[in-house]
Design goal:
alpha+beta
Length: 119
């Protein structure tokens, strides 16, 4: 079964065939872009350090904290700041407890600890 170039050329002269081929190519392009841009997304790829995990373990034991994410910045092996995002009831007393525990456990000033409720 041989197909000559002339037959293929004649096949694509048909306007309906060209429209169908363009639609199929557009559909393939759409599927390819969907798999690239809307595929499974990872959270952030960030793996908490052992110290951050230990602080999270402490914080979730506080009444009112359902879960927490902790990021600690270190310089020279010493914690210099911490950011905490927690889920649970929000209030001044709870934020103060989180602040006291985190600053105390890390041996740092309270002003270097930022605390935010999760959205």
């Amino acid at each position: 079964m041989t197909v000559s170039f002339g037959k293929i050329k004649e096949f694509f002269r048909n306007k309906t065939v060209r429209i169908i081929c363009l639609c199929l190519m557009a559909l393939l392009l759409l599927l390819a872009s969907f798999s690239v841009f809307a595929g499974e997304k990872e959270e952030s790829g960030y793996v908490p350090t052992a110290l951050e995990a230990r602080i999270v373990d402490l914080l979730v034991k506080i009444e009112g904290v359902d879960s927490a994410t902790v990021m600690i910045s270190e310089e020279g092996g010493r914690a210099v700041s911490a950011v905490i995002i927690f889920e649970g009831e929000d209030g001044i007393l709870l934020r103060n407890r989180i602040l006291e525990i985190t600053a105390g456990a890390l041996g740092m000033e309270k002003k270097s600890v930022l605390i935010f409720p999760a959205a």
